[in-house]
Amino acid sequence: SQQGEEDPQALSIQEGENATMNCSYKTSINNLQWYRQNSGRGLVHLILIRSNEREKHSGRLRVTLDTSKKSSSLLITASRAADTASYFCATDAEGSNYKLTFGKGTLLTVNP
Amino acid sequence: DADVTQTPRNRITKTGKRIMLECSQTKGHDRMYWYRQDPGLGLRLIYYSFDVKDINKGEISDGYSVSRQAQAKFSLSLESAIPNQTALYFCATSAAGSKYEQYFGPGTRLTVT
């Protein structure tokens, strides 16, 4: 069963705008990761946030984690057409021996 | 060269056939994984291996088997393919521990007719 659920399922914005995607999960976690997938290709790791961290930045990416609400958000600032992809959150649940459980993803379309 | 490679990249096979998907990695990671991706369902874990002598079932292992031939090689077999195994299959690797991400291969698109 899916541990993480992304919201929205699809998001369409204009270049230069910010994109925010959310992820909710069900059980306690060691860490939460975000991945990106261009159409039909392998997933690429974007950022990892540990359960004791609340916010993390990497370039134009900002991830927040609220363990009390069991939720995370991924913000992409100043989006570009090349950011068009599906974005997945993946949780490493406590006791899972570091296996990841992926959500269903958010399809982001950035229009030029 | 890619760190995680999968062969074949595309395969069409018929119901009842046995098929093997292969994964090789040059990252030196101990951990390897096989996932299946279906439209709208995200990735689901089929099998995983934390070292050569360790094989574990994932969420959806029925109808699949695996072989870890070496640290760098992890194969997925469909003993008797059926149409609902049509999907995109990914191999991934990771180092051990909670702070490490997974590295994915390019995927194998399998169609069972």
Structure, explained:
The complex is a heterodimer of chains A (112) and B (113). With 112 residues, chain A is mostly beta strands. In chain A, 0% of the residues lie in helices and 58% in strands. The model of chain A has no long low-confidence stretch (mean pLDDT 92). Chain B has no helices and eleven strands. Chain B has strands spanning 4-7, 10-13, 19-25, 31-38, 42-51, 54-57, 64-70, 73-78, 87-94, 103-104, 108-112. Chain B is globular. Chain B is mainly β and 113 residues long. In chain B, strands 2, 4, 5, 6, 9, 10 and 11 form a seven-stranded mixed beta sheet that branches. A four-stranded antiparallel beta sheet of chain B has the order 1-3-8-7, with no helix packed on it. The interface between A and B is medium-sized, with 25 and 31 residues.
Question: What is this structure's SSE topology?
Answer:
The complex is a heterodimer of chains A (112) and B (113).
Chain A lengths: L4 E3 L2 E5 L4 E6 L4 E9 L5 E8 L4 E4 L2 E6 L4 E6 L8 E9 L6 E3 L3 E6 L1
Parallel strand pairs in A: 2-11
Antiparallel strand pairs in A: 1-3, 3-8, 4-5, 4-9, 6-7, 7-8, 9-10, 9-11
Chain B lengths: L3 E4 L2 E4 L5 E7 L5 E8 L3 E10 L2 E4 L6 E7 L2 E6 L8 E8 L8 E2 L3 E5 L1
Parallel strand pairs in B: 2-11
Antiparallel strand pairs in B: 1-3, 3-8, 4-5, 4-9, 5-6, 7-8, 9-10, 9-11
